[in-house]
Write a structure and sequence with these properties.
five-stranded antiparallel β-sheet, five-stranded mixed β-sheet, elongated, alpha+beta
């Protein structure tokens, strides 16, 4: 029987970036955008607030872009400060590279196992699905869901009792499956 677990975000992740004012290393998304028009050219930024001093920084979405190349639906979402657009843009790897940022998902996600029915079976096939690209360690997911320590899970992996097509010792952010043998 295949059991499905889901890794679900609970809030927006923090942005790792050095503050120019207080040298703190984290920002939180304000949920607001700034759009500036200069004749037929648009600039758009996502505003983030320093967790240390509250200073505002801008993450560039696009710069000096002709107004006709911007989809009207995107422009409407920017003007409406759409929170789902904030979540989409924060996970955009191009935006992350352009702004030299990374995301801190600590405390911003949860694992939904659908109950503990799977714990009493001899062999459990588990499919882990991600609703957002959240980098987590499979060892941590298995330990949390099964009530084991991370050391115990790593021991089960070396003994061949936890098997997967992916490497379970690093971080993953995409769907995967594994088999747990008791």
């Amino acid at each position: 029987m295949l059991t499905t677990w889901a890794v679900v975000p609970t809030c927006l992740p923090q942005v790792r970036r050095r503050c120019h004012v207080c040298a703190a290393g984290r920002f939180r998304a304000s949920g607001k955008f700034r759009v500036n028009a200069n004749h037929k050219v648009l600039d758009a930024w996502l505003l983030v607030l320093c967790t240390g001093c509250g200073d505002t920084a801008k993450l560039t979405i696009f710069e000096r872009t002709h107004v006709r190349t911007v989809r009207p639906a995107l422009l409407d979402r920017l003007h409406a400060n759409d929170l789902s657009l904030v979540a989409e843009l924060l996970q955009d790897t191009v935006l992350q590279r352009r702004n030299h940022i990374s995301l801190d998902w600590e405390g911003a996600w949860r694992l939904d196992t659908g109950g503990s029915d799977h714990l009493d079976q001899e062999v459990v096939d588990v499919s882990v699905r991600f609703t957002a690209r959240i980098p987590v360690r499979p060892v941590r997911l298995i330990a949390d869901a099964c009530g084991l320590s991370r050391g115990e899970v790593e021991r089960l992996i070396t003994e061949g009792k936890v098997v997967s097509a992916i490497r379970l010792t690093g971080k993953v952010s995409g769907d995967f499956t594994f088999t747990l043998k008791r």
